[in-house]
Design goal:
The protein has ten helices and eight strands. By secondary structure, it is an alpha/beta fold. An eight-stranded mixed β-sheet has the order 3-2-1-4-5-6-7-8, with helices on both faces. The chain has two domains: about 150 residues, NAD(P)-binding Rossmann-like Domain (Rossmann fold, 3-Layer(aba) Sandwich); about 90 residues, Orthogonal Bundle (ProC C-terminal domain-like fold). α5 crosses α10 and α6 crosses α7. The chain is elongated, with a radius of gyration of 22 Å. Its main location: cytoplasm. It is an enzyme of class 1 (oxidoreductase).
């Protein structure tokens, strides 16, 4: 069993913050979890709630900022004075740069993190970046997010735009594909509910196969594609001009650009 990582303060427990917290409580990675939030919502079992930073006791080992960027300044008021030089503050605020985090919390170490929505079931992907954390510190932070899925350290903060476009927005692309496959099945004559169930379970099953099988996606695709068969015919249609690869490049390009724009707006 790994060593626990001390006390966590979670500033803001909305959708993302709450989802992360539930995974951390389940994993037991922290000795103590304290939610800093004025909302009088009862905390989940395994956590405590304090209405403000001033009302919390002790010094946290880790702080996770999970509020909306536009209220971050107010939410972080007085936080730096409560931290030690070794406290690690992690921002999961969408579009907020590491520089923004450092301007809000002028003490300790700093990490920018970008988790995606499947973190709520322990199947997420989180991108991480820091320029003031040593290798030991990075290993500990990675373990925090590995409790919610996979965690990957980025070489440059600018990589967050592409990561956001691929893994941050990626679940929505998959959901859209399920919708489209379901609609196509209905168009082909299937009952609407049956088409929906077939499309949904097909994506679930394919994802599980990707996880369990050591072969790459390309190898798995080729394994189920018989020459002259139905799958080959469908894939050829999928790759007709402009083709799925070109479409996905355009999708990632558009989402990356919007990520950059939102980052600039937050900085402004």
């Amino acid at each position: 069993m790994q060593n626990k990582l001390g006390t966590l303060w979670l500033v803001g427990a909305g959708n993302m913050g709450g989802a992360l917290l539930r995974r951390w409580i389940k994993s037991g990675i922290f000795d103590r979890c304290v939610i800093i939030d004025p909302a009088e919502t009862p905390p989940p079992e395994g956590a405590e709630r304090r209405e403000s930073i001033q009302a919390a006791d002790g010094t946290p080992d880790y702080v996770v900022m999970a509020v909306k960027p536009h209220i971050a300044k107010a939410a972080a008021k007085g936080l730096a004075e409560r931290l030690s030089d070794d406290t690690v503050t992690i921002s999961v605020m969408a579009g907020a740069s590491l520089g923004t985090l450092k301007s809000l919390v002028k003490k300790g170490r700093h990490v920018r993190a970008m988790p995606n929505t499947p973190t709520q079931i322990g199947k997420g992907v989180t991108g991480l970046y820091s320029d003031d954390l040593d290798d030991s510190g990075k290993t500990k932070v990675a373990s925090i997010f590995e409790a919610t899925g996979d965690a990957h350290w980025l070489d440059a903060e600018s990589d967050f735009d592409a990561l956001t476009a691929v893994s941050g927005s990626g679940p929505a692309y998959v959901f859209r594909m399920v919708e489209a496959l379901s609609a196509a099945g209905e168009w082909a004559g299937l009952d609407a509910e049956l088409a929906r169930r077939l499309a949904r379970q097909t994506i679930i099953g394919a994802g599980a196969l990707l996880q369990e099988d050591e072969r790459t996606a390309g190898e798995l695709r080729r394994a189920v594609t018989s020459p002259g068969g139905t799958t080959e015919a469908g894939l050829e249609a999928l790759d007709e001009e402009p083709g799925l690869p070109a479409i996905m490049r355009n999708v990632v390009r558009a989402a990356s650009q919007r990520s950059r724009e939102l980052g600039q707006e937050n900085e402004g």
